[in-house]
Every structure is written in structure tokens, then in C-alpha cells.
Amino acid sequence: MKRTGILNRHLAGALAELGHGDGVLVCDAGMPVPAGPRVVDLAFRAGIPSFADVLEGLLAELVIEGATAAHEVREANPAAARLLENCLPDLTLVPHDELKALSAGARLIVRTGEARPYANVLLRCGVFF
């Protein structure tokens, strides 16, 4: 058994399969999950695990070359907006409906237990070299 890093075997396996340019949607419990992409649902109860905890864990494991979130996050969920802007300085903001449409092209969806609105981000994988 792994001692550090991501212990959830479904998530660890899915991350190992990602390649350059693949999308990973990290979303709250209310985000519509499109059919098609692999889904790892980590939601246990409202707020557990938090969006912040899951995002922090993923950013420690992945190389990210781009990120997209809904511009509505700034007004509806300022805490999530600050988190995203601090962790992802090149963050692109689009209308929420556009983010939902883009999420259909993600290779992986990681659903958190977050219960606050617009705690969603689409990450684009980079390479480590």
C-alpha cells in the first residue's frame, strides 16, 4: 500500500493513465457529470472532501499547463475564486454553460463533496519534461 500521495486506488490509476493535453474536471457535488469521461467520485458527505483539499492533492501529482473555470465563481463563491487564482495563475474564465460543455471533452472527472456553487475547474495536463 502507498504511504504518501493519493491513496484512492481509482484516482491514482486514472491519473497514471493521463497524457499531455488530457482534461481533468475537478467539480463540486452539484456539477452535472456528462456521460463519457471516466468519473472518480470522492464525495462522502456535504463538504467532504473539500474542493480545496482535492485540488491541492491533484496539483501535487500533476503537471498543469492550463486551467478553465466559470467566471461566475468570482461573485458566487469568492473563496473558491481566490483559491483558483492563487493556485492557477494562468486561469481562464468562461461562462458556466461553456465550462459544462467543455467538461464533456475531459478524460477524467473527479467529483468532490464540495457543497458551495461554482467550485469547479477544468485542468489541462502538461508534461514533466
Explain this structure.
The radius of gyration is 13 Å and the shape is globular. The protein is of the alpha/beta class and 129 residues long. The longest helix is centred in the middle third of the chain and has 11 residues, at 51-61. It has a six-stranded mixed beta sheet. It has helices at residues 9-16, 51-61, 73-76, 78-87, 96-103; strands at 23-27, 38-41, 64-70, 92-94, 108-111, 121-125. The protein has five helices and six strands.
How do the helices and strands line up, and which of them pair or pack?
Blueprint: H1 9-16, E1 23-27, E2 38-41, H2 51-61, E3 64-70, H3 73-76, H4 78-87, E4 92-94, H5 96-103, E5 108-111, E6 121-125
Parallel strand pairs: 1-5, 2-5, 3-4
Antiparallel strand pairs: 1-6, 3-6
Overall outline: globular
Q: What structural class do helix, strand and pairing data support?
A: alpha/beta
Distance between the termini: 28 Å
**Number of helical elements:** 5
Q: What share of residues is helical?
A: 25-40%
Biggest sheet, spatial arrangement of strands:
2-5-1-6-3-4
Average the pLDDT over all residues and give the rounded result.
Answer: 95
Number of beta strands: 6
Strand proportion, as a percent range, falls in 15-25%
